[in-house]
Amino acid sequence: MNIKQLLISSLFFLYAAFLSGQQAALEAALADTALTGTSWSICITDVSTGETVFEYDAERNLAPASVTKLYPTAAALSLLGHDYCFKTELLMTGEMNKRRGILEGNIIIYGCGDPCLGSPYFSDHYGDVIDKWVSALKEAGVLHVKGRVAASESIYDFNPVPGGWSWADLGNYYGAGVYDINFNDNTYNIYVTGHSEGTPATIDSISLFGREMQIKNYLTSSGTSDRGYVYNSPYSYDAWISGSVPADRSIILKASMPDPPGILMRHLTERLRAAGIKVDGNPTDQRIDIEGLDITPVVITVSPPVSEIIKVINHESVNMYADQLRKHLGYYLGESGSFGAGTEVIKDFLDSAGCDPDRALMLDGSGLSPNNGISARLTAGLLVYMYNSKDSAIFLSSLPAAGVSGTMKNYFRSELFNGRVIAKTGSITGVRAFGGYVTTQGGKTMAFTMIANGFTAPWREVTDRMEKIIEELILSH
Question: Are residues 241 and 387 in the same domain?
Fold first, then answer.
């Protein structure tokens, strides 16, 4: 056997050993009777060559849960730019009598879609937004507003939630809708206490931005787990909570605001009056078309850049932020400020990236819909593209590290994965998924996507199988 034949033979056996390890881990998962009926889609690709090194049913469309967030975050970073910022403007309309401090007009909030205005995730960036706006109006000499605090016509359509979301999700924090004016992550807190087993739980209080809600309480005290849910629809202040909360404990239920622009208008009005600025009118649902009006800018509030926003999205898995980026892409680069237009922009981006999005079913940008259908191969292709793009470093830094940060903190905790795995996680009922990057012991970087749907076993059994596949990848390649 000559040297060339020996080299080819050695490479063949190394490749066969690699495939054997991967295949053994997968076959163990497929043979596990606890996971019978589970659908799998797996694709592992070398980011340097673009070659698929391992796959299983890679073109099967499955619900990827929050791995879906890779799509709007990648598209926004690439198309809007890492330094793109959202603006929210406070304006005055009408004539201002500076000597008397009387505004013969309205205070207008002009929203441009900032998803994180006043967010606790960015408290150092924004501070107290309402207080800053009140101070700016004082500095402008306003003492009396003859009109009211209002919102301008929306740059988006008036459908705040994707059509694929479940009614049971809408009232909870993870079902918060997308508006042109968002505030405090469009959420508020309900403080409840569970009492003795089987007795009704009580509402202790509701946080500031939910105090206008009319909430009916059907909660019971039971067990040790929080199984309480808020039911509410957009634009409605009537809600109810049901299910169970832990007995003999106090907890917080995080709920979604039904109308963030309206709530912000009312709170700004109250704060102006408390600061000694008279406001004659009260906020209404009617938006004001500012085109052609005499406008005086008061203050502009600027968001953190997209690079920081996508890091929160992919680390903390904030649904509203992800779907806001999708809608804004539709407004900024597509035909309208709608979810559908945003999806078309994302698909065009995927097409330009060499991916084939035509077979994908993208009903939202967050993954909350269980009816999304996206393959592991498409997602791995996106990951390969982003790894080799001009935005590679920023995109990779947006993904949490295995066993360390964000939603990856409780996954891939073995020492073997330390410093080797970064990924976006995905989890809804009957779904577990991962999409990210792994560095092998041989120094190769692979993009990987693993999706499992339809299991009834504990989710940890599924993720253990997935971790075993990546373990074999690290050791064998």
Answer: no
Chunk the chain into consecutive blocks of 10 residues (it has 477) and report each block's average pLDDT, rounded to whole numbers. Answer: 46 45 75 85 97 96 98 98 98 96 98 98 98 98 98 97 93 98 98 97 97 97 96 96 97 98 98 98 95 96 98 98 98 97 98 94 97 98 98 98 96 95 97 98 97 95 95 91
SS3 at position 455: coil
Question: Do the bridges between strand 144-145 and strand 102-104 make them parallel or antiparallel, or are there none, so unpaired?
Answer: parallel
Q: Over the range 417-449, which residues count as b (16 or more CB within 10 Å of their CB) and which as e?
A: beebbbbbbbbbebbbbbbbbbebeeebebbbb
**Residue 343 resides in a domain:** yes
Q: Do 331 and 404 fall within a single domain?
A: yes
Report in angstroms the alpha-carbon separations of 368 from 58, 183, 256, 456: 22, 21, 15, 19
Question: What one-character-per-residue DSSP string does 358-395 give?
Answer: TT-B-S-SSS--TT-BB-HHHHHHHHHHHHTSTTHHHH
Residue 8 resides in a domain? no
Q: Which of 275, 304, 333 is the last residue of a domain?
A: 304
Biggest CA-to-CA distance, the chain: 100
103 shares a domain with 55: no
DSSP letter for each residue of 388-447:
TSTTHHHHHHTSPBTTTSGGGTTSS-SGGGTTTEEEEEEEETTEEEEEEEEE-TTS-EEE
Structural tokens at position 283: 């906020």
> Which phi and psi angles does 459 have, rounded to 5°?
-60, -25
Is 6 contained in some domain?
A: no
CA dist 370 to 150, 178, 366, Å? 37, 19, 11
Structural domain for 138, as ranges: 87-157+260-304
Q: What's the CATH number where 148 sits?
A: 3.50.80.20
My answer on whether 280 and 426 are in the same domain is no
pTM reported for the whole predicted model: 0.93
Residue 9 falls inside a structural domain: no
User: What CATH number did the domain enclosing 417 receive?
Assistant: 3.40.710.10
DSSP string, 61-129: -B--GGGGGHHHHHHHHHHT-TT---EEEEEEESEEETTTTEEES-EEEEE---TTTT-GGGHHHH--H
User: What is the amino acid identity at position 274?
Assistant: A
